[in-house]
Amino acid sequence: KKRIDIMNDISAETHDSIDAARIAYLKDQMDVEDEELIYLNRILKLQYKRRELILNRNTPSVIIDDFLYQSDINDARNMNLLNKLGIQHIINTCNISLPKLITEKFSVL
Questions:
Q1: Do 65 and 104 belong together in one domain?
Q2: Which SUPFAM superfamilies is this protein grouped with (predicted)?
Q3: CA 23 to chain centre
Q4: How far, in whole angstroms, is CA 51 from its chain's centroid?
Q5: Can you tell me whether residue 108 is helix, strand or coil?
Q6: Which of 17, 54, 77, 90 is buried deepest, with most CB atoms within 10 A?
């Protein structure tokens, strides 16, 4: 079995979130294997991974391709967008009413 230097790998990659004492405890008391520590290391790296929020305000979020969309009141009021996407039904979950033009053309709940 190939021996891996878990302690150095984990502490360097996760900003010392797992120290030598914790690794010793996990191995001695919990019988954690090297492979499990490697997996834990990968999970812990995720919390430090830089994330980028990408806002795409051009279209609603697609829930089911060409069938179900989720968006905001502004998109629900956009007749051109609704027609372009082929939307026929709108479920309004906010306390703002849609314009009469929209409620007459689309099935609104």
A1: yes
A2: (Phosphotyrosine protein) phosphatases II
A3: 30
A4: 10
A5: strand
A6: 90
Alpha-carbon gap, residue 14 to 42, rounded angstroms: 9
Question: What residue spans of the chain are helical by DSSP H?
Answer: 6-13, 20-28, 34-48, 73-76, 79-85, 100-105
Answer for the pair 80, 102: CB distance below 8 angstroms, yes or no. no
54 is a domain residue: no
| Interval 50-100: pLDDT, tens | 666 656 667 788 888 878 889 999 999 999 999 999 999 999 998 999 999
Q: Return d(Cα 83, Cα 7) in angstroms, integer.
A: 58
Q: Using DSSP, how many helices (H) and how many strands (E) does the chain show? A: 6, 4
Based on the domain organization, do 41 and 69 belong to the same domain? no
Tokens 């954690």 found at: 32
Q: Higher model confidence: residue 58 or residue 103?
A: 103
Determine how many CB atoms are found less than 10 A away from the CB of residue 69: 19
Which pair of structure tokens corresponds to residue 32? Answer: 């954690």
